[in-house]
Amino acid sequence: MRNARTKILAVVRTPVGACSAALLVLLLALALFAPLLWGDRASAVDVDALQQGPTGAHLLGTDSLGRDILARVLVATRLSLLLAVTATAIGVVAGTLLGTAPSVLPRWAGRLVTSVVNIAVAFPGLLLALFFAMIFGVGAKGAVLAIGLAMAPAFARLTQTLAAGIAGRDFVAAARVAGVGRFRLLVRHVLPNIGEPLVVNATIGAGMALLAFAGLSFLGIGVQAPDYDWGRLLGEGLNQIYVNPTAALAPGVAVVVAGLAFNLFGETVAGVVGARSTVRFAMPAAAPAPAPASAARASTEPADGGPVLVVEDLRVAFPGATGPVTPVRGVSFTVGAGESVGVVGESGSGKSLTALGVSRLIEAPGVVSAARLEFLGKPLLGVPEAQVRGLLGTSLALVFQDPMTSFNPTRRMGRQLAEVSEQHQGLSRAKALTRAVERLREVRVPAAERRARQYPHEFSGGMRQRAMIAMGLMGEPRLVIADEPTTALDVTVQRQVLRLLAQVREHERADGQQGGQAALLLISHDITVVAQSCRRVLVMYAGRIVEELPTADLRTAARHPYTRALLASVPALDTDRDAPLALIPGRPPEPGQVGAGCSFAARCSFADERCLTEDPVPEDVGAVGGAHRVACWHPQGAGPAIRPGSGAQVDVEAAGGGV
């Protein structure tokens, strides 16, 4: 609360903030007290002072019945503001419901709602208001509904646009992996992050509603006698504008001042409210929550002691201008219990899309297909989301590339971590928060209780990455997918994060079962990081795995020209400083431009006619020390990757696209 008061005081000290606050307070005071102070004067008829100009007794003159115009303008403040705010509330609520409906409704119903909104937005707001006014009838109630529904399409379009921008953020994907339902995801993660522009537009919309009401009442469609608002007073004053211009000028000025107050207040709200909750929560002192029941644990064990993850012929496709685009093409691999597997390749090779496809995070119109996709012995494709939500939420942990976008900026860190346990393990709010603090301590976040009360922007980059790992540990993960977890971190923090991931793998589960170590799927463009952290490496290029081999044999037994080129392009301590850095010539093909044959043929010095027409399939080359598969028509012989200029077998030049 103190932080909120500080922000409010800071804004009020600005000229715009001070003006908006003063005007708003004045309007509220008039709405509350004007009918009590001047109500009798506004309704008193004086037959001796009909249609008089300004006098000492009547500062703005009188109307056709001798009633004081100034008093009537002041008293009309309550009804004018009440009707405008009510119509705005109807418009905001209806618009927000229409704008968020596609996120929670089935796809066909969402498309129908979106089409209706698009058609309604094409019509001018005033035309819609007049149309609805004719439907609901003449009077204040009909005008309120007419103006409110006329405002709804614009708010719906704004909500759709803002929600679509938030839906693609990593923290939404993380919440989905944690098993958060669509409605809860909308309320907890999407709406709080789009609240600020909605509030600002709502206050601006209130000023527009005020003007629309004045227009309808001026035309005789809105407020009816004996009630009156500023629009009705403006219409009455127009009849005597040549005798007493102030009769029409006063209500017109009132409409302008009120609209200005709402607009300025909207700008103030943008800087003050920010749609952030200011409720503090106390750190509970309860003991750590007990482990899940044994029956629940048993359901997360791989069938017959098999691998944790099985992927066969995984494909991810998106619609394109000339047909489907398939950036992931027939990826197959397995991850055993407690195993560490690395995935390397240049940007655009399909590494992250493979991880998203495995995690069921590819949104429509993207399509994920596979001959077999199983996690802990259970299929992930062709089954309703509700059936795998609990499994993925507790047994699969995701560590994204950018931890700043992986956390909801409007929620405290402790609450975000606790949501996993509340959702899947049935823990109370207090126990889940205690568990979150314990997990922060496990990943060596200092002052975990204090840090749990902070927002993501108050954490450093390395600290946010640790907190991201802690979120994955809120359950008992059997597989940790780390997508570029060390990108944009300095080398010291990189080492700490990699060491922490290794500790997570060795972390004994709470149930103490054998083979309970977590498996790791580490995605990186840095082949050196993978070589140091994993036992097996998958090399991807243009959406396919071109080589799979143990990391122990990586520098001595790599046989695919692309793998050898990646190794050759990594500088070492003995690299000649006078020689140009080794780069792989050319650039990877775009997903929609992959033709027949080997996708690496255009950059490979060993390519022949067969490479240009036939796509190689992965074959076992029988490497010593583990499975070794290569998808190449001309696999190279065993031996270290040699740098350019010293007899290299791979044509790596100093010009062209690099890694």
The spatial strand order of the largest sheet comes to 7-8-9-3-10-11-13-12
Beta fraction = 5-15%
What Rg do the Cα atoms give?
33 Å
Task: Tell me the overall shape.
Answer: elongated
Give the beta-strand count.
13
- The top-level CATH class of the domain at 2-272 is Mainly Alpha
Largest β-sheet summary: 8 strands, mixed
Structural class by helix and strand composition: alpha/beta
Distance between the termini: 50 Å
Mean pLDDT: 79
Number of H/I helices: 23
What's the CATH architecture name of the domain at 2-272?
A: Orthogonal Bundle
Helix content, binned percent: 40-55%
Jot down its keywords.
659 residues; alpha/beta; MetI-like fold; eight-stranded mixed sheet; five-stranded antiparallel sheet; 23 helices; 13 strands; 49% helix; elongated; disordered C terminus
Structure overview:
The protein is an alpha/beta fold and 659 residues long. The chain has 23 helices and 13 strands. The chain has an 8-stranded mixed β-sheet with strand order 7-8-9-3-10-11-13-12, with helices on both faces. The relative contact order is 0.08.
